[in-house]
Amino acid sequence: MKFIKYSLLFFFLFKSYSQQLNCEVIVNSSLINQTEKQIFTNLERNIESYLNTNDWDDQSLQNFQKIDCTLIITVLNYSDNIFNCNFEIKSFRPVYNSDYSTNILLFKDNGVSFNYESNQYILRSENRFESDLASILEFYANIIIGLDKDSFALDSGKLNFLNSKKILDFASSNSQSNMWSQNYNNGRINKYWLVENLISPNYSTIKEIFYEYHRKGLDIIIEDKERALETISETIAKFNLINRLRPNSIMQQMFFQSKNDEIFNLYKNNSNKAYINNLKNNLNRVSPFFSEKWNSLK
Prior knowledge:
Layout: H1 2-16, E1 21-28, H2 38-53, E2 67-79, E3 82-94, E4 101-115, H3 132-150, H4 158-174, H5 184-188, H6 191-199, H7 204-217, H8 225-237, H9 239-245, H10 250-267, H11 273-286, H12 291-295
Parallel strand pairs: 1-2
Antiparallel strand pairs: 2-3, 3-4
């Protein structure tokens, strides 16, 4: 009996360290004119449990090492157990030697549709399509983990991105929803092109930028701020190359969506005008959407 108790204790301790995500899920149903809100509370609780208790990767992480992330689901329409929503996915990773966390991912996936009944258990299967909801959650779990890995070691998230591609291909063949297709949302910002960019060698330069920005830039900023800022400035300049070949790619947009405030705050008090002007010129070329912010750098 004692052996069984210790074996169970070991099992649960091991399992508590085998999940990778620490995800907060928020289901916003304020746009829905419905008095009974319990369905949305159940959905929120079950998605959070699904993301945080499943083992998505072969990494064994202690609780403090898990990836902090947020999934905000805005319900646009709900009828007969069919949800139509917008997803906003954010993930963060700590900066070495500091209490600061940097935004790794900020991605908006509009027009997500799925079926969900109150208190329904979200099933996961590696060998068959279970549901649109399970598939999309696993798809983004792998994206989050892959990007987190890539920020620590170059191209180390490749297997996770390939898992996301496998999920997308499987869902495309088995789901009745067209949200998995390459033409969804006018064929621009969607799941298909996100994962295609992440696995394509055509965007290896952006993967290098992503890695160098974090490991050779942010992670040494406490130790050597001047060198860190110089490295970050150099990595931003590398976008000029990819921008000439494949302008305004989804990965480039995603990078600056998640990093624009951080970049501004890093350089806003720099007194070297020539240096800042050069940085501003690069930023305006590769990320013109935030030109107003870049031009306010002094």
